[in-house]
Specification:
The protein has about 90 residues and is mainly α. It has one domain. It is built from 2 helices and no strands. The chain is elongated and about 65 Å long.
Length: about 90
Amino acid sequence: MTQETVIALGQEALMTILKVAAPVLGLSLATGLVVSVFQATTQIQEQTLAFVPKILAVLVGVGLFGAWMLSTLMEFTYRLYELVPQLVG
């Protein structure tokens, strides 16, 4: 296994992680922004108010994108298993 192979696998792993996490993080970010705007307009400065909507948004995101996230991770894992003979030998 060469250094270039390790770097390529690491880059592919990082890109897969970013691709899988992006929808859920985006929903959480958007929900946090909406809650922050609501808190600023109503002057309610409760610290725990932002957590429940974010948690619900993440759960909805996992429900909506879960199958796609799982298939993306499975494709990456299959590619890794296909590369094992080349990496070991």
